[in-house]
Design a protein that fits this description.
- The chain is mainly alpha-helical and 430 residues long.
- Helices cover 62% and strands 3% of the residues.
- It has 13 helices and six strands.
- Helix 1 crosses helix 9 and helix 12 runs antiparallel to helix 13.
- The radius of gyration is 30 Å and the shape is flat.
Length: 430
C-alpha cells in the first residue's frame, strides 16, 4: 500500500493524454487512440486506377489472340511477326463486336470465347478499380457507376488505338465505331465488378421482392441448362463428323503449327456453336448463309466454307427417335421449376409454414422472360456476317429465339413447380 502525503501530489500516468508537461506550460490536447480499422489507406486517383486496370484487361485478352493467330500465320515461314500482331489486333477487335472491312466483305462474326475472356478481364478491372479508390463495401451507386465509367473511357481509348493500328496494312476498321463499342462494352462489364465490390449488387438483391429474386434465379438456371444441352448436342454432332473436320484442317497445308492455330480458332467459336445448337433445339434454328435454314423440321444448305466447326451440321430434318430432342427445352424448364419448388419447400419447412401457390407460380412464370432475354442476347451476339454475298447472314434470329425460349421455359417451369408442389409430402404444421 503506497504512502502518499497531502504535500506530495500524485503524478499522472504516462501515455496518451498524460499530463507530463513541465510546470507552467499549457495542457496538451487529448488525442484519442486510433480504433482498429480506422487507419486510412492510401487511395489511387481514379484516372490512374482505371487506366491501369483497363490496360491490363486489354493486354491479357489480346495476347492469347495474337498467339493463336501467330501460330496460324507463322507456320512454314508464312507471314511475319508484324502481320501476326496486326491480325491479332483485328481478331481482338472482332471479339468485342467491332466489324472488319475486308476485300471479301464485312466480317462481324465474333468468337464468343474471346468475348467471354474480355468480359471476365473487364469485370476484374472493375473490381481492382473499386478497391483502389477506396469504394469497397461502400454501397454507393455513384461510386460504382463512376469507377465503371472510368474503366469504359480507358478501354475506349485502347480500342480506338487498336483500330488505327490494325488498319495500317490490314482490314479497315472504323476508329469511331471501335471507340464507341469499347466504351459501352468496357463500362457494362466493369459495372458487374464494381457493383459487386462496392456492395451495390447485394443492396439491389436485398431490395428486390422475393418473387423477382426467385424468378431471376430460376430463369438463369433454365437458360444455363438449355445452353448445356446445346453444348452436348453440338459436341456430339462435331464428334460424329470428326473425320470431315480432320480432312478440312489437313487441307489447309499449313504444317503442325498452322493446324494447331486453326484448331484453336475453331475452339474460339465453340460457344457460338453452343448457342446455335440451343436455338436448333428450341425450334427457330439458325442460318449458315443467305436463304439457308438449319432447323429440326428443315435443313436447307448451299455451298459452305471449309470451316471445321461446320462439319457437324445435320444433313436433314429430325426423324424417328431424334424427335425426342424437341422435348429437351421443356425438360430444362421443368428441371428449373422443380429446383425452385424444392428450394421454397425446404425454406418453408424450416419455418414450419406452407408454400402458397402464388409464391411458387409467380417466380416460375417470370423464369420464362429471364431465360428468353438471356438466350436472345446470346443469339444476337453469336451471329454476324462472314463476308459478302451468301455469307452475309450467319446465326439465329434473336427475337425468334427469345420468344420461343420465353414460352417454352415458362410453360416448363410452371409445370415442374406445380408437379413438385403437388407431389410433395410436406404438410403445414398443425
Amino acid at each position: 500500500m503506497s504512502s502518499v502525503t497531502p504535500d506530495q501530489p500524485r503524478r499522472p500516468a504516462t501515455g496518451v493524454g498524460a499530463d507530463d508537461r513541465p510546470a507552467g506550460r499549457p495542457p496538451r490536447p487529448r488525442v484519442p487512440a486510433p480504433r482498429a480499422g480506422e487507419a486510412r489507406r492510401s487511395r489511387a486517383p481514379l484516372a490512374v486506377a482505371a487506366g491501369v486496370a483497363a490496360a491490363w484487361a486489354a493486354l491479357t485478352s489480346y495476347l492469347p489472340v495474337a498467339l493463336v493467330l501467330g501460330l496460324a500465320q507463322l507456320s512454314e515461314d508464312a507471314g511475319s511477326v508484324a502481320g501476326a500482331l496486326r491480325a491479332g489486333l483485328g481478331g481482338w477487335l472482332l471479339g468485342h463486336g467491332v466489324p472488319l472491312a475486308t476485300d471479301a466483305g464485312p466480317v462481324g462474326l465474333a468468337p464468343l470465347a474471346l468475348t467471354g475472356l474480355a468480359v471476365w478481364r473487364l469485370v476484374r478491372a472493375g473490381v481492382h478499380t473499386s478497391r483502389a479508390i477506396g469504394a469497397r463495401g461502400g454501397r454507393s451507386p455513384r461510386q460504382a457507376l463512376t469507377a465503371a465509367g472510368a474503366v469504359g473511357v480507358g478501354y475506349a481509348l485502347l480500342g480506338t488505338l487498336a483500330a488505327v493500328l490494325a488498319g495500317v496494312g490490314g482490314p479497315a476498321v472504323s476508329p469511331v465505331r471501335a471507340g464507341g463499342t469499347f466504351a459501352i462494352f468496357g463500362a457494362l462489364a466493369a459495372l458487374a465488378g464494381t457493383a459487386r465490390t462496392t456492395g451495390v449488387a447485394g443492396l439491389l438483391v436485398e431490395r428486390a421482392p422475393a418473387p423477382v429474386r426467385d424468378g431471376v434465379r430460376t430463369g438463369l438456371v433454365a437458360g444455363l441448362l438449355l445452353l448445356g444441352a446445346g453444348a452436348g448436342a453440338a459436341g456430339l454432332a462435331i464428334a460424329t463428323g470428326g473425320g470431315d473436320a480432320a480432312d478440312m484442317i489437313g487441307a489447309y497445308r499449313t504444317g503442325v503449327a498452322g493446324q494447331a492455330g486453326i484448331t484453336l480458332v475453331s475452339l474460339a467459336y465453340a460457344p457460338n456453336a453452343t448457342v446455335w445448337s440451343a436455338s436448333y433445339l428450341l425450334g427457330p434454328g439458325f442460318a449458315v448463309g443467305a436463304d439457308t435454314a438449319v432447323r429440326t423440321s428443315e435443313v436447307s444448305l448451299g455451298a459452305l466454307p471449309a470451316v471445321p466447326l461446320l462439319a457437324g451440321l445435320p444433313s436433314g430434318p429430325v426423324e424417328g427417335f431424334g424427335a425426342a430432342l424437341l422435348a429437351i427445352p421443356v425438360l430444362a424448364g421443368m428441371a428449373a421449376g422443380c429446383l425452385l419448388a424444392r428450394r421454397l419447400l425446404r425454406l418453408a419447412a424450416e419455418d414450419r409454414a406452407e408454400v402458397a401457390w402464388p409464391a411458387l407460380l409467380v417466380p416460375a412464370a417470370l423464369a420464362g422472360p429471364v431465360a428468353g432475354l438471356l438466350l436472345g442476347v446470346l443469339a444476337g451476339a453469336s451471329g454476324g456476317p462472314l463476308g459478302g454475298g451468301r455469307l452475309a447472314e450467319i446465326g439465329p434470329v434473336p427475337w425468334q429465339v427469345a420468344g420461343t425460349a420465353t414460352a417454352v421455359v415458362a410453360a416448363g417451369a410452371l409445370l415442374g413447380a406445380a408437379a413438385t408442389r403437388s407431389l410433395s409430402k410436406g404438410k403445414s404444421p398443425s
